């Protein structure tokens, strides 16, 4: 059975691909953590965090990407980048969903920086 989180990531990947990004990896894992989606947007490498929050009791999807989560994402991205021959321009995006529905997707480019 596919989880709601996996469904959200699949929906986000399809959404971003419709907007011209090329999916390189989903659920990239290393010892530092996990990156939901790694994509290419032209020359730019995009590390995307997907968040599904159906309730906003604790601040909603965006607020769940706190500084601790950001640090983990940065360390994981740095590990990934170390495997490349050349480091391209990079950015961290957030794909926020309130429901498993295309109409509830909010795409935040450059959600945070290194």
The arrangement of helices and strands along the chain is HEEEHHEE
The backbone outline, from C-alpha atoms, is globular
**Assigned CATH class:** Alpha Beta
Please report the total strand number as a whole number: 5
Q: List low-confidence stretches.
A: none
Specify the structural class: alpha+beta
Name given to the CATH architecture: 3-Layer(aba) Sandwich
Q: In total, how many domains does the architecture comprise?
A: 1
Q: Count of helical segments?
A: 3
Helix content: 25-40%
Strand line-up across the major sheet: 1-2-3-4-5
Q: How would you characterize the largest beta sheet?
A: 5 strands, mixed
Distance from N terminus to C terminus (CA atoms, Å) equals 36 Å
> What gyration radius follows from the Cα positions, in whole Å?
14 Å
Tell me the β content.
35-45%
CATH topology: Trna Endonuclease, Chain: A, domain 1
Average the pLDDT over all residues and give the rounded result.
Answer: 88
